[in-house]
Amino acid sequence: xxxxxxxxxxxxxxxxxxxxxxxxxxxxxxxxxxxxxxxxxxxxxxxxxxxxxxxxxxxxxxxxxxxxxxxxxxxxxxxxxxxxxxxxxxxxxxxxxxxxxxxxxxxxxxxxxxxxxxxxxxxxxxxxxxxxxxxxxxxxxxxxxxxxxxxxxxxxxxxxx
Length: 161
What we know:
The chain is of the alpha+beta class. It has helices spanning 46-60, 65-86, 132-139, and strands at residues 34-41, 90-97, 101-108, 142-148, 151-159. The radius of gyration is 15 Å and the shape is globular.
C-alpha cells in the first residue's frame, strides 16, 4: 500500500513511505486551516482524553456531526491500539484541518508487534475486539502507516466534502 492507495487498501502490512499523508498536488500546504497537537502518557486514560481533544477541535472547526463522530472513532481506535499493543510510554496526536480533509496522525515510541499466529476467525461477529483498524479504514478516505526507528505512525485522512 502507498500513501495514495484507495481507502479499501488494508494497513495490516506496514510499508515505508512519508510520515504523513502527502497533500494532493492541487492542495498546497498553505491550505491548512488549523492544526493541534497533544502528547500524553500511553495509559488507558489517554484514549478518552485524546478522543475528547479531537472531538472538541472538530466542533470548534464547525465540522459536520458525521465528521465529528468519524474523527472520534478514528482517534479512539488508533490511540487504543497504542495503549494496548505498542508498549510505548507515550502517544502523540496531531490533527490537521485542510480545506477538503481532516488528517489525524497518531505516533508512538513503541515497537510494532506483528501477530505471532494468524487470526483464528475472520471478523467473528461476536468478538469483543479486533475491529479497530478496519473501523479506521471504513471512516477514512486514506490511511497510511510507517515504522520508524523511534516508533510507529498511523495517519488517517477524512474527506470533508
